[in-house]
Amino acid sequence: MATILKxxxxxxxxxxxxxxxxxxxxxxxxxxxxxEIFGLLGPNGAxxxxxxxxxxxxxxxxxxxxxxxGESALSLKAKAKVGYMPEIANYYWFMTPKEILKMFxxxxxxxxxxxxxxxxxxxxxxxxxxEKDRLVKGFSKGMQSRLNLAQAILHDPDFxxxxxxxxxxxxxxxxxxxxxxxxMAKRGKTIxxxxxxxxxxxxxxxxxCVMKAGRALKFGPMEKLVAEKxxxxxxxxxxxxIGGHDA
Length: 247
Ligand SMILES: Nc1ncnc2c1ncn2[C@@H]1O[C@H](COP(=O)(O)OP(=O)(O)OP(=O)(O)O)[C@@H](O)[C@H]1O
Ligand SMILES: [Mg+2]
Fold this sequence. Notes:
Elements: E1 3-15, E2 21-33, E3 37-41, H1 48-55, E4 63-68, E5 71-72, H2 76-79, E6 82-85, H3 97-107, H4 112-126, H5 141-153, E7 159-163, H6 171-186, E8 190-194, H7 198-204, E9 207-212, E10 215-221, H8 222-228, H9 234-242
Parallel strand pairs: 3-8, 3-9, 6-7, 7-8
Antiparallel strand pairs: 1-2, 1-4, 4-5, 9-10
The chain binds adenosine-5'-triphosphate and magnesium ion.
C-alpha cells in the first residue's frame, strides 16, 4: 500500500510573548497510507489543527519533513492533489456559494462549463444546492460547514484533509458528511480527518491516531488499537490513552 503522507520529526512552535515560544508539535512522526480514513483524535490544544496547517503549508515548521505522494508537501505537484477543509472558514459574506466555488475552482485550474457542472454536482452532494445563489451572509453554521466541505472536494482531490468536518452539523448533516467521506474512500481517495466526535470517528475511520501535547501517542488500525486497551470502544481507548477516566 502506497504511503500518501509521511511526516517525520515535525516540530512547530508559536511565539508567545517576549522571546518565549509555545511548543505545539513535539517531534511528531506519522504516516497515512493509500485508501485509509485516518482519524486524528486528541483533546483541545493537542495540536491537531497545527499538524493539519503544517501539512497544507499554512504555517511553517522549524524542524522535520513532510511529504505527500512522495513530493515535498510545499510543492505544487503535491498541493494539486490535496483538498483541505479548514476548522474555521470565513468566506466573503457578499458572495454566493456558486461564486465562491467558481473562485476556488479557478485556483485549481478549472474553467467554463466543466467547472459549472462540478459546482452544481458538488453543491447537490453537500446538500446546499437550493442555496447556491444566496449570499453567504445569511448562512447558518451548518450551511457554512457544508460549503466548506464543498470547497475541499470540488476538484476531486486524491487526498482529502478535513479539520473537524462534523462540527456544527445536525444529525442529518453528519450522515451526509459520513456518506461523502465513505464514497470518496470507495473511489480510492485517502482521507485524514480530525475530530472530537469519537462516535463519528468510530463509525467512519479505519485508522486512528491519538495526539496529546503535540505528540502522537500511538497510531494504527482502529480495531487493533482498541483491542489492545480492552476492546470496548473508541471512547474507552481514547480516555485510556490521554489519561482520563474509563467510560
Ligand atoms: N496562532 C497561535 N498562536 C499561539 N499559540 C497557538 C496558536 N494556534 C494554536 N496555538 C497553541 O498550540 C497548541 C495546539 O493548538 P491546536 O489548535 O493545534 O490544537 P487542536 O488539537 O486543534 O485543538 P482543538 O481540539 O481545540 O481544535 C495549543 O496549546 C494552542 O494554544
Ligand atoms: Mg483544532
